[in-house]
What we know:
- The chain is an alpha/beta fold.
- The chain has helices at 20-30, 42-54, 68-81, 104-107, 110-135, 159-178, 204-214, 223-233, and strands spanning 8-12, 34-39, 60-62, 87-90, 141-146, 184-190, 245-248.
- The chain binds nicotinamide-adenine-dinucleotide and ligand 0WE.
Amino acid sequence: MGLLEGKRALIVGVASNRSIAWGIAKAMRREGADLAFTYQNEKLRERVESFAAELDSGITVPCDVASDEQIQAAFDHIDDYWDSLDILVHSIAFAPREQLEGSYLESVTREGFLMAHEISSYSFTALGDAARPMMKGRNGAMLTLSYIGAVRAMPNYNVMGVAKASLEANVRYMAASLGPEGIRVNAISAGPIRTLAASGISGLRDFLAYVEKAAPLRRNVTIDEVGNVAAFLCSDYASAVTGEITYVDCGYNAIGAAF
Ligand code: NAD
Ligand code: 0WE
């Protein structure tokens, strides 16, 4: 029997077959979960509909997390199909492109800072709060995606690193707030992966090559490996794990310098 048999998961953040959210969705489906998906905008609708169909799901709803109305409408919509929810996966981040290159203080702006924090951290709070009523009394689990730039200064990651630090603190405060309702809240801190959000980042190719040399496992992580850990963290096997940041990065975070 699968780890997630009988559970219902809402997946936020599929944009392509390289998305980390797609790796998570595949693993969760394999483990028996029923899935629903949101898509950011009309441009992504058809693509997400066909990804959903591939995993036997007919539930796809629009949700741009910049809008409170769209977040509420998305959960109203899910509520039409499902009377309860077990799992929320938040796999989205955004900062204006020009924030992600050059020296931090030379690129950061008030607007870029606010946008990065709103879309990449606050949206988890907002989605979590909206999901909460449907998760009542069911061993719910929420999961988000972070990056080592939250806890170490990394070249070019800049304000996104500051927003990920906020997201990781958010995980702890949400865990404290939702724990009494039986809802667990965790993050996976993934190693670098070539996804849409990572493509076009200057120096990504060199960085992937560097991790391949430096990480204890001497390679990069895949979306399927992130998916497997996500399925575990959202399963009842992880029933005592909450407020935790789990690295899925081939061990990169454990080293201080390349050997
Ligand atoms: P991706 O481009 O496949 O996914 C990013 C998603 O964010 C897209 O689906 C996009 O539609 C969504 N999004 C952005 N703004 C939105 C908004 N306003 N409303 C709704 N959705 C919005 O890239 P990915 O790499 O799979 O990113 C997913 C998560 O993983 C992000 O939080 C990212 O920071 C994190 N992460 C990525 C890596 C990496 O190297 N790719 C490493 C660690 C963590
Ligand atoms: O979290 C991320 C990327 C998030 C992201 C990506 C983009 C690209 C397109 C947020 N906002 C935008 N805005 C855009 O306009 N990662 C962990 C992947 C990533 O991003 C980097 C990295 C890595 C790794 C940026 C600089 C250096 C390394």
